[in-house]
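Input sequence (35 aa), recorded before submission:
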Amino acid sequence: GGGVGDAGQALVVDPAKAAFVRCLGCIGEGFEQRE
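Predicted structure, token format:
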């Protein structure tokens, strides 16, 4: 399969996923502070 395509996709998805997880973490902390 397209090794270059997979590598490019991983480079795009990885940081996006990390940012998404961090965003969820921030929201989670906000909820914890509210309660």
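Checked by second reader. The two ends are 49 Å apart (CA to CA).
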